[in-house]
Structures are given as C-alpha cells and as structure tokens.
C-alpha cells in the first residue's frame, strides 16, 4: 500500500509540473508525446474580456478570436519568448499599447483583422524584428504616417484593406521595387503582397506611385485586388486606378551644369543643378561617400522649377569625387551626378638650422604631384638641394699653414657654387619676367542681360591651357568679389548671378602676372524690363480706358445739352402755336329793313364778346358748317 501511495503522489507531482492551460482556452500540443513538439493555444470564449496572462510559456501559436477583449495592455505577451504566430482577430479591440508586443523577438505573423482599431501604434513593431506578415484588414485606420515606414521594411505581406484610408505617404512605395531603384526580376522569389482595396482613396499626386503600380506588370509587388477605385475628387469618383490620369503631377527631372569638372588645387568651385516637376521638387546634394553637403543655396523662381548651387572654397584633394544632386517630390525622384577632379601640386620646404660649420646642412624640398587619372592619390618626390654659405662669425686665425690652405680651398668652392646658384636665380627671375609680359588683351563685354554677361578676351602669347581667374564684383564693393576659373584658350566666360541695373568691375588675372597690372573693364547690366514692360502695358491700357471714359462722358454731356435746348424750343413753339391757333372773327348780319334806312347799309356788325371771337381753328372748320338761326337774324358765316 505504501508503494501505491508513493506512485500516486509522484503522478500528482508530474501532473502539477505539466504546463497549465487557461480555463477559457484550449491548449494543443503538436508533435511527439514526449513534449518535444509545438504548442498552440486557442481562446474563443465569448465571455472573455481580458487577454489571458497564464498562457504556457512554450506556446508557439496563440489565437484569441470572437471574444469581448477591448484592449491589448502593455507587455501582454512578454513571457512568450517562443511565440511565432499571434492572431487576435474579430474581437472588440480598439486600443493597442505601444509596448503591447514587447519581447516578441521571434514573432513572424501578427493578425489583428476584424477589430475596431482606428490608430495603430506602429512603433510597437520595433520589438518584432522577425515580423513578416501584418494583417490589419477590416479595421478603422485612417492614416499611415511617415514614421511607420522604417518598421515595414521587412514586411512581405501587408493587408490594409477595408479601412478608412484616403491616402498614403509617398515615401512608403519607395521601400519596394521598382521605386527603391532595385532592378526588377520577373522570376524573383521574394514577393511583396499588398492588400489596399475597399478604401476611400482620394486620387491625387500623393498616391501617384500607387496608381502607377496598379498599371505595371511583372513587378515583385502583388496587389490582392488590381481594380482599386477612386472615391475623390469629384471628377474621378468611381474611376479605376488603371484608367486614372492625374493633372498637375509630374515626376522631377534634373539637369546638371556639367558632368565632369577639373579644377586647380586651392580654387573655388561652384556646382549647379536645375530641377523641374510638379509639385515643385526639393533638392539635396549627396557626396559619393553618402554624406550630405550643407553649403548650398536654393531658389525657386517659379512654380515647378528649383535650382541649387553648391560651393567648394579652397578645393583640396579630399574634395574630389562624385556629387549627386537629388530632386524629390510626391510623384517620384531623380538625380544628376557631377564628377570633380583636382589637379596641382603641394610644395613643402624644410628650412635648415644655422650651424657653426662652414657648410649648411642640406635642405629638402618635397613636391607632391598627383597623377591625372587618380587625383586622390598623390605621389611624393623628394629633391635634395645642397646649400653652402659662410657663417657670420669671424673665424679665428689659423695656427698652421695646412689648415689655412684647406680653408681657402673650401671658401673658393663655396664662392663658386654660390655664384652658380645666383646665376640660376637670375635666370629664373628672367623667365618669370618674360612670363609676366605675356597676358590677355582686348577685354570686351557682350550679350549683357539683367543677370548675366559674357566676357571676351584675346590671349597675348599665353598658351591655351594657361589658367586664368575671372574676378568680378559690383563697382567699389570689393568685399563681395566672385571668381570663375577658366583657361586662356577658351576666349570667353559667362558671368552669372548679377543684379539688374548695376555697374560691375571685372578683371582677368593670369598666373604669374605682375600685381596691379591685370586687365580690367567696367560694364552695366540691363534693367529688369519685365516689370517695366508690365508697367508700360498697364499705363497704355489705363490711358485707353480713360480716353474711352472721357469720350462717353463728353457724349453724355452733349446729349444732355441738346435735349435741354430742344426742350426749350418745343416750349416756345407750343406757346407760339397756342397764340396762332386762335383767330378773331366777327359776326356779320343783315339789318332789318326800315323805311327810313339807307338802301346801301344792308349789313351791320353785331357786337360780340371776346370769348366768342376766340375759337380754335380746328373747331372753326367744324363750326363753320353750322348755322345759327334766330328771329332777328339771318344765316351767319364764320370765317
């Protein structure tokens, strides 16, 4: 019995040592019965409201599905160091902490689809360097920031479909070919799967790369649904990506001032590149070693245009190399390369110390001459020049004849060699003077504009490859001088960056020329006629408008005066007409015959009232046809 009791206790201990499974989950061990397999845990209890915290530590796959879990707390799975698959799907999760996936170093797959996540903490993926699959399908995500791009570099399956995304950062597509500059291989084994359908895309220049990708074939980027559709703007609503043509969206193009520049050691070099595109691209200079150059000046003279100038002052051998001018906007990238080479030599002289002996120690002159093909690796050549001179101290009187004769011989040799050195120096000075006599002449300025001018000259005995330095500045303003390096054989140089309507002084300096004898010339730049032309056009238009207005005003005044005079004439005519429209008439009637009356006075005038005699003519013509009969008169005739 005691042995049976021991066996029972041992079995109980073994059962307690066996990993504990949460009460609302199901734990399954895949593999051999000795525990060497993989463990998966499934939690799908509808009443579960929190992420379980007692999951077996050897779990490889954890699935939390169709529960009431609303948030993923900080370090919820930090003890599951072997977890490779984490599925938290179709729950009610709306909050994910930035440290929710802490210590999941071997996590390969993360699925959070079917939740209510509106803001995803992309920085939480910092703790999952082995992550390859990220499924955020069917959530409420509205934005993917630029800060998320570094955490998506290794993702090969990204599902953002059925969210509320209207746009994407333009740099997101640059992490995948063909936009990252990597060559496209149709049989590439590494593919990237993107799920972007069922989103309210606003089709503008920001997603132009995505629209371009939907039209490509044979790329390593695979879209789950090729028939993406625009939801905005209004003129593109409902239009598929493959049929969308964007307005005002142009990739940048770069044009460098030169592809290769060779400059003497210690000179100043200006590198310029111009870029066009819409929206207006930004410019940056990158050296061949990847370092960014900060000594630049940029300006955008108009919409869609930008230029940049990089300056190298006192150029040295370390400045040689390739300089890339990169232009970038939301529609794409472009770059141009300028190769800079440096020529010349560096001379270093070691000054000897004076000693008490008659002959000075030899001085060494080191000359560095870089080869033309590799300006970055100079070679060193050492020349030993013996220098002999006498000391300033008075020598003591020699005691023996032998020493005295030896001293005379050494002095003679010293004088002979010193004389040879002096003759050599004189020859050098003569050659320098002859070189100094050679210069340039006939300086002339042509093709002046508001901001540029062309300087012409004729070389007077100088070789074609002789270096020249053009120095120009505003007149009496020597503190803002500019220089341009050229050679005598070119015969001309373009002066840029000038101010309009300004007097300039330009000098041509040849190497070895005498100081103060450099040929110079003054000139004026043209005024900026663009603004003047606009002002002149405005004045002409204003003058024409004023003339038209004054003509209309004069015509209106004339009409008013004419109407005024015509009104007065009409009043007078009506008054005269009123006066002339009335006539006076008298009534002539027959007298009664009497016995005593004179036979000749048959007619007599009957007195009438003034109002009776004043009748309208128009009425007179009518009333004249009427007759008036009375007992004491005969018919009356009106006239």
Secondary structure topology:
Elements: H1 2-17, E1 25-30, E2 38-43, E3 59-65, E4 71-72, E5 85-89, E6 95-96, E7 109-111, E8 133-135, E9 157-159, E10 192-195, E11 201-202, H2 208-214, E12 221-223, E13 230-232, E14 250-256, E15 260-264, E16 269-278, E17 282-287, E18 292-293, E19 296-302, E20 305-312, E21 321-329, E22 332-343, E23 346-349, E24 363-369, E25 379-385, H3 401-437, E26 439-446, E27 453-460, E28 467-474, E29 482-487, E30 492-495, E31 503-510, E32 520-524, H4 529-580, E33 582-583, E34 587-590, E35 603-606, H5 610-613, E36 615-616, H6 617-623
Parallel strand pairs: 2-3, 3-5, 4-6, 5-7, 7-8, 8-9, 9-10, 10-12, 11-13, 15-22
Antiparallel strand pairs: 1-2, 14-16, 16-20, 17-18, 17-21, 19-20, 21-22, 23-24, 24-25, 26-27, 27-30, 28-29, 28-31, 31-32, 33-36, 34-35
What does the model show?
With 639 residues, this protein is an alpha/beta fold. Helix content is 19%, strand content 30%. The protein has a 9-stranded mixed beta sheet with strand order 1-2-3-5-7-8-9-10-12, with no helix packed on it. Strands 15-22-21-17-18 form a 5-stranded mixed beta sheet, with no helix packed on it. It has a 4-stranded antiparallel beta sheet with strand order 14-16-20-19, with no helix packed on it. Strand 28 and strand 29 form a beta hairpin. The C terminus is likely disordered.
């Amino acid at each position: 019995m005691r042995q049976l009791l021991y066996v029972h206790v041992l079995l109980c201990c073994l059962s307690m040592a066996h990993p504990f499974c949460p009460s609302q989950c199901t734990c399954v061990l895949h593999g051999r019965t000795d525990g060497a397999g993989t463990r998966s845990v499934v939690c799908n209890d509808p009443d579960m409201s929190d992420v379980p915290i007692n999951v077996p530590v050897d779990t490889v796959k954890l699935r939390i599905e169709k529960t009431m879990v609303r948030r993923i707390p900080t370090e919820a799975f930090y003890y599951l160091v072997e977890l490779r698959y984490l599925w938290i799907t179709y729950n009610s999760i709306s909050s994910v902490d930035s440290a929710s996936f802490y210590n999941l170093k071997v996590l390969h797959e993360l699925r959070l689809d079917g939740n209510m996540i509106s803001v995803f903490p992309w920085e939480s993926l910092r703790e999952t360097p082995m992550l390859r699959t990220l499924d955020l399908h069917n959530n409420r995500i509205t934005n993917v920031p630029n800060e998320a791009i570094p955490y998506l570099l290794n993702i090969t399956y990204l599902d953002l479909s059925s969210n509320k995304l209207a746009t994407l950062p333009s740099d997101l597509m640059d992490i995948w070919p063909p936009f990252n500059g990597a060559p496209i291989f149709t049989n590439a084994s590494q593919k990237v799967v993107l799920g972007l359908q069922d989103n309210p895309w606003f089709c503008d220049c920001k997603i132009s790369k995505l629209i371009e990708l939907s039209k490509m074939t044979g790329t390593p980027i695979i879209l789950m649904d090729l028939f993406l559709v625009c939801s905005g703007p209004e003129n593109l609503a409902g239009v598929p990506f493959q049929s969308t043509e964007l307005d005002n969206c142009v990739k940048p193009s770069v044009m460098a001032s030169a592809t290769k520049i060779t400059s003497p050691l210690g000179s100043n070099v200006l590198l310029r590149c111009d870029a066009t595109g819409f929206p207006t691209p930004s410019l940056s200079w990158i050296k061949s070693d990847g370092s960014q150059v900060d000594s630049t000046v940029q300006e955008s003279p108009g919409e869609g245009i930008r230029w940049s100038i990089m300056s190298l002052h006192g150029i040295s051998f370390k400045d040689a190399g390739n300089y890339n001018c990169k232009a970038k906007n939301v529609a794409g990238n472009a770059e141009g390369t300028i190769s800079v080479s440096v020529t010349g030599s560096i001379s270093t002289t070691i000054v000897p110390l004076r000693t008490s002996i008659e002959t000075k120690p030899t001085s060494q002159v080191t000359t560095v001459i870089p080869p033309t093909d590799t300006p970055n690796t100079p070679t060193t050549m050492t020349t030993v020049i013996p220098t002999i001179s006498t000391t300033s101290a008075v020598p003591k009187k020699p005691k023996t004849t032998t020493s005295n004769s030896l001293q005379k011989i050494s002095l003679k040799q010293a004088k002979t060699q010193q004389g040879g050195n002096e003759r050599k120096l004189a020859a050098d000075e003569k050659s320098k003077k002859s070189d100094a006599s050679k210069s340039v002449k006939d300086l002339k300025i042509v093709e002046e504009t508001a901001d540029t001018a062309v300087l012409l000259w004729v070389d007077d005995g100088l070789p074609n490859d002789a270096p020249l330095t053009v120095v120009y500045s505003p007149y009496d303003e020597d503190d803002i001088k500019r220089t341009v390096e050229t050679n005598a054989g070119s015969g001309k140089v373009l002066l840029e960056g000038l101010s309009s309507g300004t007097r300039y002084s330009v000098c041509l300096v040849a190497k070895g020329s005498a100081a103060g004898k450099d040929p110079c010339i003054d000139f004026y730049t043209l005024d900026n006629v663009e603004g003047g032309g606009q002002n002149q056009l405005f004045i002409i238009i204003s003058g024409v408008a004023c003339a038209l207005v004054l003509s209309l005003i004069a015509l209106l005044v004339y009409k008013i005066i004419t109407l005024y005079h015509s009104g007065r004439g009409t009043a007078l005519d009506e008054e005269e007409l009123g006066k002339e429209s009335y006539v006076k008439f008298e009534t002539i009637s027959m007298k009664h015959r009497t016995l005593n009356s004179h036979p000749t006075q048959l007619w007599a005038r009957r007195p009438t009232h003034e109002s009776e005699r004043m009748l309208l003519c128009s009425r007179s013509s009518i009333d004249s046809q009427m007759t008036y009969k009375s007992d004491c008169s005969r018919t009356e005739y009106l006239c």
